Amino acid sequence: MVGYNDPKTGWWMGSPGNSVLPTPIRIATYALSPNRQRPFAGAFHAAIYNTFRRCRHQVLYVVPPFLVAYAAMSWANERNEYLNSKHGRRESAE
Q: Where does the signal peptide begin and end (predicted)?
């Protein structure tokens, strides 16, 4: 192997057509032991408040249709009971 010093890129090992970078030195790596990690840290607390926030923002989209449906079903049940009573049958017969 022939080495040469290139002022632009630094020291290279190998011939110019077959260049190889030198092995890097002084690279620091850090690791955390698996038993020291907390993958669900704060998940329960965040889930409660995040669920409350999401529900609070969806109330105006969900509740009004249910109120309208409840009012319509209530009216339909009352009307059905009236039409099947004596007074309702007498009114529809006329």
A: none
Indicate the pTM of the whole model.
0.49
Tokens coding 90? 């007498």
HSE at residue 62, side-chain half, CA atoms within 13 A, is 6
Alpha-carbon distance of 34 to 93, in angstroms, equals 81
For residue range 13-36, what is the model confidence (pLDDT) as tens digits?
666 666 666 667 788 888 888 777
Q: What is the full DSSP assignment across the chain?
A: ---EEETTTEEEEEETTEEEPPPP---------GGG--TTTTHHHHHHHHHHHHHHHHHHHHHHHHHHHHHHHHHHHHHHHHHTSHHHHHHHH-
